[in-house]
């Protein structure tokens, strides 16, 4: 059941990545320059004011250097790329284990 949910969520996130890629492509063609939607903009649209509380929480609870070099760069990354990576990771986690062929079991 968990594998099914991981795969389903992975496919949904990959589909959202394709939608974001198409929107960014249309915007880039219309403006005659490369433009992409940063993942920070998507997260602030989804979470609203709660997004502003992430910085003090990460700096206080985890580590101050985790926010500035790591999270700032992740929030500036294209949303389509982050969606593809997260979706493929969830698909990989949701795959059933490979059968072990060639191992003899004796009873």
Structure summarized in a few sentences:
Keywords: Membrane, Transmembrane, Transmembrane helix. By secondary structure, the chain is mostly helical.
Short descriptors:
transmembrane, mainly alpha, transmembrane helix, 0% strand, 5 helices, membrane, 107 residues, PetM family of cytochrome b6f complex subunit 7
Explain what you see:
The chain is mainly alpha-helical. It folds into two domains: 1-35 and 79-95; 38-77, no CATH class. 72% of the residues lie in helices and 0% in strands. It is built from five helices and no strands. Helix 1 (2-31) packs antiparallel against helix 5. The two termini are 31 Å apart. 7% of the residues are buried. Keywords: Membrane, Transmembrane, Transmembrane helix. The chain crosses the membrane at residues 5-23, 70-91. This is PetM family of cytochrome b6f complex subunit 7. It comes from Bosea vaviloviae.
Task: Please give the structural blueprint.
Layout: H1 2-31, H2 39-47, H3 54-62, H4 64-76, H5 79-94
Helix pairs in contact: 1-5, 3-4
Keywords: Membrane, Transmembrane, Transmembrane helix
Protein name: PetM family of cytochrome b6f complex subunit 7
Organism: Bosea vaviloviae
Instruction: List SSEs in N-to-C order.
Output: HHHHH
Q: How many helices does DSSP assign?
A: 5
Q: Can you tell me the overall shape?
A: extended
Distance between the termini: 31 Å
Q: Beta-sheet strand percentage? A: under 5%
Residue runs with pLDDT of under 50 for 5 or more positions: none
Please estimate the helix content. Answer: over 70%
Oligomer: single chain
Per DSSP E runs of 2 or more residues, the count of β-strands stands at 0
Q: Into how many domains do the coordinates divide? A: 2
Task: Look at the structure and give the mean pLDDT.
Answer: 90
CA-based gyration radius: 19 Å
- Could you describe the largest sheet, including whether it forms a barrel? none
Query: What structural class do you assign from the helix and strand content?
Result: mainly alpha
